[in-house]
Amino acid sequence: MDSFATAFAEAGALLVSFDPDFLSIVGLSLRVSLTAVALACLIGFPLGALVALARFPGRGVIVLLLNTFMGLPPVVVGLIVFLLLSRAGPLGVLGLLFTPTAMIIAQTILVTPIVAALTRQIVADLWVEYGEHLRSLDAGPVATMTTLITDARYSLATVVLAGFGRAIAEVGAVMIVGGNIDHATRVMTTAIALETSKGNLSTALGLGIVLLLLALAVNAAVQIINASASRRAVLA
Amino acid sequence: MVTRFAVLAVAFLAAFTAPVVADDRPLLLGTTTSVDNSGLLGPLLKAFRDETGIEVRTVVRGSGAILQLGRSGDFDVVLVHHPDAERAFVAGGDGLGRYPVMTSRFLIAGPDDDPAGVRAAPDAAAAMERIAAGPYDFISRGDESGTNAAERHLWGLAGLSPWTARGGWYRETGSGMGATLNMASVLSAYTFTESGSWTNFANRGDLAVLFEGGPHLENPYAIIPIDPERHPHVAARDARRLVDWLTGPVGQAFIAGFRVDGEPPFAPAR
Amino acid sequence: MSGPASILPLQVSHLAFEANGVRLLDDVSFTLQAGRRAVLLGPNGAGKSLLLRLCHGLLRPTSGEIRWAIEGRARRQAMVFQRPVMLRRSVIGNITHALAVRGVPRGERTARAEAALALAGLSPLARRPARVLSGGEQQRLALARAWATEPEILFLDEPCASLDPAATRSVEALIEGFHAAGTKIVMATHDLAQARRIADEILFVHKGRLIERGDADSFFDAPQSEEGRAFVAGELLW
């Protein structure tokens, strides 16, 4: 109980202090996860739309894999990326291990299946509604995908949030490929792990509260956007 | 809109990806949790940078993992405390040599009321025997770290190997020192730790140091620069300077003068 | 609205369509020329919608042939469905989208969309989200959207089935306007009264077969087939 009270106090102190170390950790968390989510959407939106619309042999297997990989354990992804980027590994010459880039790569791999699988579902549902009209217009594949993704934008915003939530909250992948280096690859989750291992439980919890507030802020922003969209009847 | 996004993304990645030439990039040091948890590294490496201008980045894992990463060339220099493994590492051709830096003390910690009577034991091995005799709950790291190796060595001296019995009183967390200490604290169990980690550990609960000192509880740290012949990309020059500085008078004096709550967790090698 | 080369006449020969082992259309043959408003008339489930979709290319026939006068037919056609598909955009956005898909240059789209809206009497609603419009307004938007793409032939699948009489009248007025401008109208309906109002010629469909075909006046005065007679008398319900 005492830990909780101290934790809230520590969280508050951190937030108002503008301590540069703390701010750089928060900044790096956002930089890594937002970049990863952006890349995941760049890959996942068209991939999901493609799988939703195209008919090809083995499509069922792809759908199964996408859905399964939504639950990829972060530590496993971290391990695989680590083995790829280690000097002893195939991509070792790039020298990317223990850098933010490696963390972005790992989180992108983690988030892309989520974006792709959920996009697939959303686009498939929208296709049921729009299909005949688009075919009547003789829309090509690119025009079709663009139309569906654009019109599904508010649902897809929720997908982006889900991806961001996954990225900002994971610790397994970024710990292994980033190394939790002070002032270089330390993000909120790895900092929490470190403080926990040092027994500084209140500090760890305080950081955790800040992380939750961050996620809350992002979700609130999207919810406001969605609400205004509903009012303008674009969602229904 | 899609193309604009793509351009942005590529620019982003490019900014992060630019691989840096070995001479310009920071020195990558692999070291163990005990050194990191003590809080020594921050001020120590800052002093090093102030004097030489070389920035050192530290990745913290268990000794086993650090040496493994050293073998694949992912570090420029490693600082660990597992003498047998270190000697094998150098013999294997991945390290240039083993340079002693400092020692810390291993500790047997446990609940303050000490039901096993560890405080009164004549030596470390006997203390372990008393814990096994209960048997009283014991939390081990079980992660092939230097600390874990020393712990098993002690059990060996007492003629015991509790990790084979899966008895329930002997638990291996497979995690670092911190997680192990946390568990021991919560369960009021005995555990094997060392002074670097212990001095800064903030969640002691009713844990106390019950036994320390003696020949088997010395914990030697050594620094090993990675061999540039086997791994040409390592920053060999900067690594050499770190080794020289740490084993030289300035570094050694710094280590000797380092205090946590008035206590020195480390003693210099000379 | 025939261009330098028209896609009409449309020739349909021995068209058949089967699904799940059931023959839904059998041996349908006819030719459609430019000009006269053609109405596919028949009870529910007769196969009218199916026939329209086959002609438009949304479905592939099991056997038989659909031949247009020239290839590249898709871009000269448009279709309006019973329930209009409204994109999650503004009213004018729905039209500019269709124009974009059809390759109309960006600069021209707004002007053409506004012209189509004006024709359909929807100009005041241009910026509204299309999905808040009433049923009749949405159907008029679907028509305006189809019109904006300058089709030679317009297929309509029971466009007024879900509308009240007032909305039906405004939709029919639009269709009349398109016909006057030269677009070939091909409409499916089960509504006898509507067919009387609109049709120049009737294709009477029942249980997957083209039973009868002829001028609207002749058909309504004296249907040649037994089913036709029953239908005109209001007795053929399916």
SSE arrangement:
The complex is a heterotrimer of chains A (236), B (270) and C (238).
Chain A (H helix, E strand, L loop, with lengths): L1 H16 L2 H34 L5 H11 L4 H12 L14 H37 L4 H11 L1 H17 L2 H7 L9 H10 L3 H31 L5
Helix pairs in contact in A: 1-10, 2-5, 2-7, 3-5, 4-5, 4-8, 5-6, 5-7, 5-8, 7-10, 9-10
Chain B lengths: L1 H16 L9 E6 H6 L2 H12 L3 E6 L1 H9 L5 E4 L2 H9 L7 E13 L12 H10 L4 E3 L5 H12 L4 H4 L4 E3 L4 H11 L2 E5 H6 L6 E6 L5 E8 L10 H12 L1 H9 L8 E3 L2
Parallel strand pairs in B: 1-2, 1-3, 5-6, 5-7
Antiparallel strand pairs in B: 3-9, 4-7, 4-8, 4-9, 4-10
Helix pairs in contact in B: 6-7
Chain C lengths: L9 E10 L2 E11 L5 E4 L6 H9 L6 E5 L9 E4 L10 H11 L4 H14 L15 H14 L4 E5 L7 H17 L2 E6 L2 H7 L2 E6 L2 E7 H6 L4 H7 L6
Parallel strand pairs in C: 3-7, 3-8, 5-6, 6-7
Antiparallel strand pairs in C: 1-2, 1-4, 8-9
Stretches of chain C where pLDDT is under 50 for at least 5 consecutive residues are none
Q: Tell me what portion of residues of chain B adopts beta-strand conformation.
A: 15-25%
Beta-strand proportion of chain C? 15-25%
What is the CATH topology assignment of chain C?
Rossmann fold
Radius of gyration of chain C: 18 Å
Characterise this structure.
The complex is a heterotrimer of chains A (236), B (270) and C (238). By secondary structure, chain A is mostly helical. Helix content of chain A is 79%, strand content 0%. Chain A has a single domain (2-231), classed as Orthogonal Bundle (MetI-like fold), CATH 1.10.3720.10. Chain A has helices spanning 2-17, 20-53, 59-69, 74-85, 100-136, 141-151, 153-169, 172-178, 188-197, 201-231. With 270 residues, chain B is an alpha/beta fold. The longest helix of chain B has 16 residues, at 2-17. The radius of gyration of chain B is 21 Å and the shape is globular. With 238 residues, chain C is an alpha/beta fold. In chain C, strand 8 (201-206) and strand 9 form a beta hairpin. The chains are: A mainly alpha (236), B alpha/beta (270), C alpha/beta (238).
